[in-house]
Amino acid sequence: MCNLTAVRSKICGITRVEDAQAAADAGADAIGLVFYRPSPRAVDIHMARRIIAALPPFVTTVGLFVNHSRCEIGEILDAVPLDVLQFHGDESPSQCEGHGRPFIKALRMQPGQDIGALAKTYGSAAGILLDTYVAGVAGGTGQAFDWAAIPLLEKPLILAGGLTPSNVADAIRQVRPFAVDVSGGVEASKGIKDHESVKAFVQAVRAA
């Protein structure tokens, strides 16, 4: 876990230019673009480029992948200027490496799994994202997990899973993560962000 006082915020599952602009206006540090086609929050290359082009400077763009091939990732990176890659599938450390970008590995808090030991195998990761385990779902469940079960990690911790404007301050006080990641908790419907909720979320992070 991280002792830094300034916790970063990431608004994930952005599918529209206006939602990306609202996140940036609210002061979010990063936005997430989902390239996993089965997700209701997926974007194609054309929309991803439009979204990124509309962002102001210093907003980090993160691309989310789930068991994509190296070729598929390369095609997207050739077309979309992403800053960071986020892997939500069963990718091995070697599959996450070698793309010319820092990467975050998402791990799900599954009962009986030693998350601390698993996280150590991703030694080249820029950070570890912890999300809720739901069978058959790669992420974006909208469900929180037991924050007290989080082990001490050597890498910066990004906390996800069921965060909302009303509980993120408590999460930060308990966990002291490097960053928090929200998607469904600030949506009007899947893939469509509620701008007031985005603003309230970022304000709550900054005030925590």
Molecular structure report:
The chain has 208 residues and is of the alpha/beta class. The protein has one domain (8-207): Aldolase class I (TIM Barrel, Alpha-Beta Barrel), CATH 3.20.20.70. It is built from 7 helices and 10 strands. It has helices at residues 17-26, 45-53, 70-79, 93-96, 115-120, 168-175, 195-207; strands spanning 8-11, 30-34, 60-65, 84-87, 103-109, 127-132, 157-159, 179-182, 187-189, 192-193. The strands form 2 sheets. It has an 8-stranded parallel beta barrel. Strand 3, helix 3 and strand 4 form a beta-alpha-beta unit. Helix 1 runs parallel beside helix 7. The radius of gyration is 16 Å and the shape is globular. The two termini are 16 Å apart. The model has no long low-confidence stretch (mean pLDDT 93).
Compute the average pLDDT: 93
Distance between the termini: 16 Å
Q: Total number of β-strand segments? A: 10
Spans where pLDDT lies below 50 across 5 or more residues: none
Global structural class: alpha/beta
| String of helices and strands | EHEHEHEHEHEEHEEEH
Helix content: 25-40%
Please name the CATH topology: TIM Barrel
Assign the CATH superfamily.
Aldolase class I
The tally of helices reads: 7
Biggest β-sheet: count, sense, barrel? 8 strands, parallel, barrel
Indicate the radius of gyration in whole angstroms: 16 Å
